[in-house]
Write a structure and sequence with these properties.
The two termini are 34 Å apart. The protein has a single domain, classed as Rossmann fold (3-Layer(aba) Sandwich). The strands form 2 sheets. It has an 8-stranded mixed beta sheet with strand order 6-7-8-3-9-10-12-11, with helices on both faces. Strand 1 and strand 2 form a beta hairpin. The longest helix is centred in the middle third of the chain and has 18 residues. It is α/β, with parallel strands linked by helices. The radius of gyration is 20 Å and the shape is elongated. Helix 4 crosses helix 5, helix 5 packs across helix 7 and helix 7 packs parallel to helix 8. The structure holds iron/sulfur cluster. The site of iron/sulfur cluster (SF4) has 14 residues, from loops.
Length: 326
Amino acid sequence: MTQPVLSVRDLRVEFPTRSGTLVAVDGVSLDIAPGEILGVVGESGAGKSMTGMAVLGLLEPPGRIAAGEVRLAGARIDNLDERGLERVRGREIGAIFQDPLTSLNPVLSIGDQLVETIRVHTRCDRRTAREQAVAALTAVGIPAPTTRIDHFPHQFSGGMRQRVVIALALCANPKLVIADEPTTALDVSIQAQITALLKRLCKEHGTAVMLITHDMGVIAETADRVAVMYAGRLAEVGPVLDVIREPRHPYTRGLMGSIPSLRSRVDELVQIDGSMPRLDRMPPGCAFHPRCPDAGPRCARERPDPHPVGTGAVACWLEQGGVNGG
Ligand code: SF4
């Protein structure tokens, strides 16, 4: 098997508080191959953005990686200092966030931002960098790029701004892109264009993508594989079509069952009673057991870890010896 671009092993993210340690990501392992799009899906608070931020080295203090490893093309990056992380971010990992304005400097023209990024990472002269910047804007579908390159972020619509952010994230030809809810803030009519653009460009460049979203419709249209997260843990991982056709974890089944057109939002699910546990009230055993229609006595006692099943992996006792025994 080709070496994964991103390999996360047993990642644990903790937030120490006065009343105890909160575990936001608990034992998550993921791989993303070159050119592969892994969709990470779950309700808000499931730990998906926290996983992305941990990979980027952007956890807000006091949040920290307490255990596990993050490797980029085989090299550990979770133990780098801030300078090392800054080098990796931008050059090797591009980031796209929900709000394009988070990634853009409002007082610089988009051309200056692109040229600066391209020059930092490729060390070419200003003229060549500007030519590359125009090419990057053309590739993301900005009309009249030779004029628009001198405009400022506020002179673009939300959808056009996100295209600029995609150009910025990809202009250094990173190995990995982390896209966290890249279309959530955009008009529905624009969302599909932006995800299609991201998918096309990453496939063309062989870039691995971690696509974090609560929208299963976006995952179905864009991702190759999907990782379903619940309460900071992985519930199920597998090829997206297999998981959609035959979800094995009861939580994933709930997600699919309550999505009539696969365009609904996970936040609006109605078929799973109750809500995800708070980090300071995590139940013992399987974190989903208070809401699970299939739970048995073992589920409240023992925690299931992801276990290979079919083409993927599932963390559920139903797939590992039953919910009664153990
Ligand atoms: Fe439900 Fe038990 Fe499976 Fe958890 S381990 S998802 S509670 S059946």
